[in-house]
Every structure is written in C-alpha cells, then in structure tokens.
Amino acid sequence: MVMSTTNSLEGKEITKYLGVVTGEAILGANIFKDIFAGIRDIVGGRSNSYEKALQDARRLAFTELEEKARRVGANAIIGIDIDYETIGANGSMLMVSVSGTAVAAQ
To answer: What does pLDDT average to in each consecutive run of 10 residues of the chain (106 residues)?
Structure first.
C-alpha cells in the first residue's frame, strides 16, 4: 500500500477515488500514570515511555487506515493527515487519528 501526505503520486496515475478512510487509536489514562512512574526514562527532556506509547498508537491508527483502504479496493492512500487530540474527562485520554483518500493507482 502506497501512502502519501500529498494529493498525487509521482509516476502513478490515479484511476479511481474510493473515498475517505480513517484510523484511530486511543491511549487511556493509565499510560499517563505509567509515564510519570517511569520518569527515570526522561533523558535530555524526552520521555522514552511516552514516545513509545505515541509510536504504538500511531502504528495502530495507520494499520486500521490501511485495512479500511484495502477493503474498498485501494492500492494507495493520498492526502494523509495525522492528528493528536486529548479527549475524555479533563483530557485524560489521547487520541491519534489518521485520515486520507483511498485510491486506485497505476
């Protein structure tokens, strides 16, 4: 599956637009407790635990995005956008969402 943030694919012709596809992953409040408990991971102002959690959530969201695109017959996704939002009571959860346009390209 070719994935791009651009609206075209260099060297490929988009033959069919198959619709918008999305993928989401939500990190619960426990991840924040784990992060603060693992404060020793912070090196140079960065938290390895937090970065790993975000990477895992982003990977899950992209996997869901790709699966949905395959279901509609796409072999590429263009115009991908990645968003991070806090949700829940007092922003206790973090949602990673990705969206794009599923296309058939040759």
So the answer is: 96 97 85 56 63 87 98 98 86 88 97
Give residue 20's identity as a one-letter amino acid code: V
Q: Are 76 and 11 in contact (CB under 8 A)?
A: no
Query: In terms of C-beta distances under 8 Å and separation of at least 24 residues, what long-range contacts does 26-35 make, across chains too?
Result: 26/57, 26/87, 26/93, 26/94, 26/95, 26/96, 27/53, 27/54, 27/57, 27/93, 27/94, 27/95, 27/96, 28/92, 28/93, 29/88, 29/92, 29/93, 31/94, 32/92
